[in-house]
Amino acid sequence: MFTFNRLISRFIAAALLFFMASLAGAEPLRIAVAANFTDTTRDLIALFEETTGHSVAASYGSTGKLFAQIENGAPFDVFQAADSARPEMLENSGSAVSGSRFTYARGKLALWSPETNVFSDPASWLASADFKRLAIANPKTAPYGLAAQQVLKNLSLWDALQPRLVRGDSIAQTFQFVATSNAQAGFVALSQVNAWQNSNGTLWVVPQQMYAPIDQQAVLLSHGKDKPVARQWLDFLRSPQALNLMKDDGYDIAD
């Protein structure tokens, strides 16, 4: 009996080693993620890899540029955009799996400066144009940039502030413009401010009625349709652990 038990134990150990080795050698899940979701995604990946043993490789950028890469054949398995329009376009074109699209988070726009007491009345400060540069993301490629444009148009300041606007290719670059004082303030994602190491600064969380909802949607791409881990990742994004992490980072959760 002792010998038999030892054989069983060795068999189980060998099977576990083989299983872990196969996971380690497996091709990683490849996800394309909107730049505003970078910090949150890194935390989500760490949790997912720890609990499943799967490897995840993420590429970050503006939603528009990632969309263009996917259209041109980039081998991503999942697309996590900062809008709903582009995932829907991919679904309609057959580049994504029909019925797999859902809103995983709802973003919040903020006007932020790392300096203290920059503005007390944001609308009046913007109207005064008492600054050299105001950073926004490119409205054509970045949904948070489009939201910033909508806010400035709502305040009737879009045309007047054109000479002072500096545009980032993505919301990540826009945040860097402000964090490094290349712009005195900028419209960024609230989640980026929450993740910033320095808690000082001036912040205005823009009322959501001033811009269209930033519904960030995920979709399973055709390249990943036969990968169970891709569907597992999408299910994970809707898990209580993932949703709580997103809330802590400053996102609203879709109904």
UniProtKB/TrEMBL annotation:
GO molecular function, one term: tungstate binding
Keywords, in A-Z order: Acyltransferase, Metal-binding, Molybdenum, Signal, Transferase, Tungsten
Residues at which molybdate binds: 63, 171
Pfam families on file: SBP_bac_11 (PF13531)
GO annotation terms (biological process): molybdate ion transport
UniProt feature coiled coil, ranges: none
Subunit structure, as described in the record: The complex is composed of two ATP-binding proteins (ModC), two transmembrane proteins (ModB) and a solute-binding protein (ModA).
Family the entry assigns: Belongs to the bacterial solute-binding protein ModA family.
Protein name as it appears in the record: Acyltransferase
